[in-house]
Structures
1.
Amino acid sequence: MSRRVQENIVAGLLLCIFAGYMIMCLGFGPNARLVPLPMAIFGFLLVVAQIVRQNLGSTDTEQDSRRELMAFGGVAIFVCLIALLGPIVAVFLFASGYLFLSRHAGIGKAVAVASVFTLTLYLLFVVGLQLQLYHGILKPLIDP
Amino acid sequence: MFEAILAGLVALATPQAALFMVIGVSYGLVIGILPGLGGIVALSLLLPFTYGHELAATLALLLGAHIATIWGGSVTSILFNVPGAAKSLALVFDGHPMAQQGQASRALGASATAALLGGLMGAVFLAFSIPIVRPVMLALGPSEYLMMALWGLTIIATFSDGSLLKGLIATTLGLMVAYVGMDPIAGTPRFWFGSVYLLDGISFPVAMIGLFAVAEMMKLFVKGGALADRVAGKERSTVLDGVKDAFEHWWLIVRSSLLGLWIGVLPGVGASVGGLAAYAQAVQTSKTPERFGKGAVEGVIAPDATLGANEGGGLMPTLAFGIPGGESMAILLVAFVSMGIVPGPQMLISGLDLVFSMVWIIVIANLLTTLIGLAISSRLARLPALSPSVLIPMVLSVCFLGAFATRGLLADVVVAALFGGIGYVMDKYDYSRANFVIAMVLAEMIERNLHISLGLYGNLFVFTRPITLAMFIFILFTTALPFIRRWRRRQSAAHGNAP
């Protein structure tokens, strides 16, 4: 996908966001929309100007977005793991999986490093900060 | 005043404050040395740890880490030819050639001493500016505060790096995101989509973690490869040589520090501009400008003194007016608010002890950074060789656990991830994240003061209050200035090209 197409997608999303804000502002009272409504209109107009501006230029380049998709995917997987299994188990699985899949370490070393790291975070957050842990959506299946 | 100065120091004389200061400085050095991370990521990751401790100790942790990251970035620039952060770019020009010539220790010594002296000047400035600023602040009303917040926003948007239009869009988007939740005046729920979670608004610490720390890890993954490679000659100097150099160029340090203070006070003119401006003035005022770029020690001293002094200057508007000078100050402001510290006139009256604690923290943190940094810089210098494969899962884990720890909500983890994506996209397409964050921080100040001004002074308050009117005209002028300059440049270019 070319850089210009990507820029247009981003600007299009921003346009939708500001348009959405404008429509929602109309449902508020005069005090509640006093600042957000003019700001949303201003933002909308700025994005329109940006779209015009970025499509007037002549240069454009092709860009490979595979690694970016992987980065977004990685973050999404990590969040899903936290939701399913809770943060501590998710950290262990993500860290060991990442170290192994990135070929930085063999499975044994990856598990060992991830274990030490997870234990450190456990001591820091759960013991030190006394964080009330969330055990994940799957907990009732394991421990009914 | 004297009691406040003393009370500020006494508040730091607890085991917890001392421990937090050492932890903050050591952590800041490590994060600062890792290229691409820097002070903003360091502060974002510390936000979950700001609850439930002594106030002065938490401030020592935050400010200590922030100050240490600045010099950490200089170490990376000197040893690896990779700026630890954008603000350390100027250190690359002469710092790295010195390292290649076997004078890395000398460069590090000069850099640390210059940063220390600059930092001390920043602290002294902050202490002396308080009695001057206090009566001015007390004379201002809500309409003037509104104008100041608007000025902060417009100046940041128009003077920030990259596209002006994109800077303004990022600013507007930041304002809109901050308006999610209850309206502060009427209590009307806004942009909440029926979600109770959104009624409280977007948590600032969580948004910062995502916008900077998560986004930086995504960038690191996309970039791939090692963080930095070191190319250095055989060492032929000592740290003491650099310390002597710094004292020999004391006048350069004074000039550069004053520049750093001025840049720190101005919102929107970031420290990255400060480092380059300091380098430029060092070249311009040198009797031997031809040495610059080839390993001149003045090219290391000037930017570091500016960066050191910048913090004291930046804290002044942050504490006095609640207007952050840059993205790091915006994150500090978020931390202050979450700790119950409300910047503004009241801060300099009832919270003067705390302000002087910050002055002392700047002094002590600068001293500690220099001492710890110089003692372990050779070991720390191995950090950039760390593989991203180790760094990414570890930092991401701290990010998400940190986001969860702020309120114990899974939704905060999702929001951190979302803001990570937003931060990555903004960075890639040059929509300034700094503008976005500063707008988020200033949004409530703008809305609250607008409503109060309308209620107190009527709809035409801008024209009925002379100081407000003068400030309004000043805002229009400073906002229009870059557009006028650009138009003039185009005009002169068109005339120049005309046959």
2.
Amino acid sequence: MVLNCRHVWKEISNYIDDSVSPELREAIEEHLAHCRHCAAVLDSTRNILYLIADERTFELPVGYSERLHTRLREEMAK
Amino acid sequence: MRRGSVPQDEAELIARVLAGQRDLFHELVLPYERSVYFAAYSVLRNEHDAEDVAQEAVLKALKNLASFRGEARFGTWLVSIAVNEARAQLRHNRVLRFQSMDAPAEDEESDFTPAVITDWREVPPEALERRELRQLLRSALESLPEMYREVLVLRDVQEYNIVETAAILSVSQGVVKTRLLRARLMMQKILAPQLRTKRGGGLFGLFKARAGASWF
């Protein structure tokens, strides 16, 4: 199986999630070994996903949990 | 742990709440508080509205707990309530502003192209100490159309798996995967050039004082 760049981009999300067949995985890795553009697309995408999963990127508003439980207590007291 | 593990006694906790120990509901929602908020935020893009909707969703879950059948996980059920409440709120806001409610058409066939770059140097997690980096990441996510924000926040911020994400959004796993591909490549396309430019000396002039400054 020989893939071009577009094929690789189309599968890149499944590849990151490790949900491609072994044959497809091998073909993607073969392509990545020879295509620095696609390798950079993969690395940058993974890096960005890693950064957005970090809890510092998306922080809860200060006091959110306290306000939520106070509201809940008030509702239960009704 | 991001979402908290599902406690062994979650079913028991639900049974006890329904039997009258309503205080235990606090404990039941605790592991999902963050997901509930960010699910609402992914739709609304506004902290204040997201918090209101998160509260409403939790109250609604309490009110409707008896109708929770246990076919789904409690967590995905709760988060799906938050998504639906947030969507209703968004529609309400749009009507108030006389804005179009037309969602962009989902074209499964159309291609999507990432930012093609030649090399990538990793932005380390330490760089998140910089507020401007966190802001850049949040702005990129907020700029995506709603259906892509939802899937990206559930899958890649809150780290639900494909099956859970599909259950929360009431769409097929195939739809989740397609939207996720688009969402991830859109993020790459927006962010990769900016993150590279910054490293090279300061897109916003913030790093000009430090020649060749990196993210940390």
3.
Amino acid sequence: MKRWLGLSFMFFALWSCSKDDLCSGETPTTPLLTIEFLDFTDRTTPKSTNDLAIRVRDTDSTVVYASISEVTISLPLDTETDQSLFYFIDQASSVENLDVVQLDLFYRRQDQYVNRACAFKTIYTNMAFESDNTPLSWIRDIELLTPTVEDASVHMYIYH
Amino acid sequence: MRLYTCIFIISLLTGVSTSAQEPEALYEGTLPLERLENNAAQTISVQASDSLAQGVKPAMDSTKLTAYGLRVGGDLSKLLRTALDQNYSGFELVGDLRFSKRFYAAVELGYEERFWSQQNLEAQINGSYIKLGADFNAYRNWTGMNNGITTGLRYGLSTFNNTLLRYPVYTTNPTFPSSIREDNIEYSGLTAGWVEFILAVKTELWSNFFLSLNVQLKHLIHEDTPGNFANLVIPGFNKTNDFSAFGVGYGYTLTYFIPILKR
């Protein structure tokens, strides 16, 4: 009789201890656009940014990064529209050397089911970009490596 | 909160398993004879064994007939849940047929409509199911009684529709506002099958009326996965698990026994 009682408690234990209602940080969800910065003269050498600020080109210029000096950055893309427009600001803290380049990204979106805790993610296909950089801008060249953004690999090179 | 519930349950479990080490209580047809003889050193219990043994013997010798027949009824818990839970409506009919002294063929038929809503993910699932299998009564009754502690196995099969109503897109970066999409994608004609272990306690309330409490442990064998979504709930199986094939359930049934023959 007591054995049965024990067994039935096991059932209730299994019941309440399910762990699938929190989205784990390790689960791949909506991907970010990974950009690697390279040297313009020696095109294979990574070159860190110099006090780079990135802002969204919207009415209140939402800050994505205030100031970073990194070789690789991850840029979020809008999941609501087929485009994300940015300002890439070199030496953002300085007044006289500040250099602004526009970088616009265009794409198609596709929602994919992940699991019940994370629900859906958006992946981006048909990637394209536009920029107003000139030979005088801090960004000299931009190269898109892949037409789809669905994982954490490097998607774009920026030469400066 | 969940953590505390788990700790509480685990503490209950350990409590139950330690107390299970004690000698089993006196029950089942074979009464106290040997047990009390073991204690023969105590004169008081020797006297007790004498009187008890004499009291029981006539009942054991009696050769009352066993009734075979059909037991039919329904699940009360599902009706109650339909009344109380806005996200659930359903019913289940149950039946079993006693074909030997301790074995029963069993069937459950049910229909469920469920609304899943968690963190802006919303889905509507509705469908019917059948469960077929057998029960074994592990409880040895005193003569003339018909209670049971049964263990059983079932194969469950469900056909259902799964409609995705609303979903959020999960983003890790707060730059762009995360979006919730209103949608209405229906996946219909899905099927799923599972095996189920069922443990039940059955008590005869009045003559031929049985009340039964059961718990079910299920293991999903096959399912039709809807294209770009998942079966969060399967009628009859209940909530599925993203990381394992196990599921659980419970029932509280009231049944009526129709005797067909006595042997």
